[in-house]
Queue: 4 jobs
Job 1
Amino acid sequence: MEEGSKRKISEEIAKFSIQFEKSKNPEDKKLIKKHIEDLKNKLKKSEEVFGNLKKFKPLKETKTEDVGKEDKIERKKIGNFLSHSKQEVLEEKRIDKSLQEEILNSDIPEEFRIGGAEDLEKLTLKRIRKKSIILETKKAKKASDYVKFSSNLFSNISRTLEKKRMFTPLKRDLIKANLQFIPASYISVILFTTLLSLIFSIFVLIFFLFFNIGAELPIITFVGGELFNRFLKVFWIIFVIPLSTFLFMYYYPSMEKKSAEDRINQELPFATIHMAAVSGSMIDPTNIFKIIIATGEYEYLEKEFIKLINEINIYGYDLVGALRRSAFNSPSKRLSELFNGLATTITSGGNLPGFFEKRSQSLLFEYRLEREKYTRSAETFMDIYISVVIAAPMILMLLLIMMSVSGLGISLGANMIALIMILGVSLINILFLTFLNLRQPAA
């Protein structure tokens, strides 16, 4: 082996020894250690070859003392090379650490900037290094004190009610709406909230037994007469408020499911176009969903795709089985059809890019139809708003003024009429805007 090659090997051993000390990744250390061993073996083989060459008799006879001297000279040269490389290593240690990190971790290929065998080895090591995927860890949400207290009070009752057929749709809606409740806990919350509304309704009933609310000042007045007759007029309060609370809590998961369905349907056409483009590279279908999740552009679809990936990675289902289960638990009918169609295509060995492309075209067509339908309905709501919120209050105000002047019916003052109109218009506007907001599709 030539003198320059030995020097290169010794320098590489020294430099990789520095990297071995600096590296904190066990896999990198293992790779560096293996590379150092290979270099040492290479150097050792060169010495063995040199030793074998010495055994052959030269053409010109030489004394053994001369051979020994030559051996010593060669070994002295190797020692000088190693000491020289060691000296270079010590000098490199004096370089600013930030500069060393910048050189070692630079993304620019080293062979294009410096050149040399040791730089090529660094690049090779850098390419084969396994990059650790940094996952964003989210803290698990703990149950609130309200949920804990509800579960402590009604856990036994809720477990019994959970098995009833009445609460079967509720359990399905909880899963599809992605609400962070188990059925027993949510039933406990329903019962506890209904109990609180019952206590509130008792206080309201007691209030209306003795007081009345009117349109004239003072608004709250004391009520005389028999208490029993007054109770017969207002006793319905104690039933209506708790029953309304129970029904609202019972149907709230279905409302959340409907909201999630609308949001998913708005995102699905564009996500399917994205999936069609990704599937054209012929990658594993599971990675298609991982890529869509990584983009972070589809907030509501991301939850469904994470559930799908969890079915595979955590519960151990294959992709087809996970698609079937996700289709069953999806809040969106269109997403369920997409999952089932994809499962059928994979099973039958169909063309995935073609499937996604055709499905994206149909979903985009439905999306445009919905947008056009919403635009037309918005024009209708505008006409209703003009007639109800602008024209109707003016007509009502004129009627109240005419009744007040003529003395027919309810006689109200000007201030009271103005207060009624302001409150009425404000309430109508709030209700109308809420209705429009519920009807408006996602952007």
Note: The longest strand covers residues 211-213.
Job 2
Amino acid sequence: MANVLLVEDEPLISAITEEWLNELGHVVVGPASDLASALRLAETPIDGAIVDISLGRQSGYPLADVLTARGVPFLFATGYGQEGIEPAWRGRPTLSKPFEFETFRRAVEVMLDRR
């Protein structure tokens, strides 16, 4: 069981992701739908995070900076593929939307193994 920060601004995707994390036995921190809330929640004890890159008019990159500095593993979630990720962040573990449960499960397991 791990505490996983969920940062997603689409309510349906957030609800599904939260349900899947619960099914996998993890505790969901959040979810946060904006950068300010995500940054506050990142101050709490977390073991990993799923970070939507596009949060309305904001981006998840400042949160990625914080998580990286703290050594917290995370996955980006995006509907834009690797091309839609800023070059400095390409190659990071990414869930491409829409994602299915098995892909999600494997990605979360790999992320949490990096702790």
Note: Residues 79 and 98 are 7 Å apart (CA to CA).
Job 3
Amino acid sequence: MDITSAIDALGALSQETRLKIFRLLVRNAPEGLAAGEIARRLRLPGPTLSFHLNVLSAADLVQPQKNGRSISYSANVDCANGLAGFLLEDCCGGKRNCLPKRK
């Protein structure tokens, strides 16, 4: 992941509703959920959900799949893993197996 993609992903996730949507989709990976089901579970109006899904999709954090007349969304777990890897790639001087220090 490059820095621009990381900034886009972090920006998309830095809003409470979008973070809730993404976490819901992660819990339901890899199948995902229909847009209506996301709206029902999070108690969001359709236009609000659509706006937030578009932001998450533009950051490549969710992927839409058309199912007839409805659209389902799934978390792009590869993107999330790439973001985590990007954030931690220089941890402990680049050592891959460092452990957190105990307090």
Note: The chain has a mean pLDDT of 93.
Job 4
Amino acid sequence: MFQSNLARLAARARARWVMIAGSDGVLLETDSRAFRTEAEAIAAQFASLFRISRKVAGDTESGGLQSALLVTEQGKILLQALNEDYILILFLEPDSHAGKAFFEISRAAGPIEKELRY
């Protein structure tokens, strides 16, 4: 359903993989077949982290959390709210530019959100 949009986003952002998860942690879609069996657990973990971060941002009157960036030894993990119910999760190559990835997400968000409504 979302495969073409996720594949295009992954290529443009230089992401190893991309997934869409519900804010409840349920995996909606991923472009990676390599770790499909673990993808559901990964989606649940990152959704939980985003949900907690969103609550902390609200509790500290920092405003609504739109995105988060985690930097690891192997790359960068970008979490982006699509709406109240869904988040986009990307794992970027270590030398990828997060700013470019955010830009590519802004380009892809419209078509992805449109698909979420149907």
Note: The chain has one domain: 3-117.
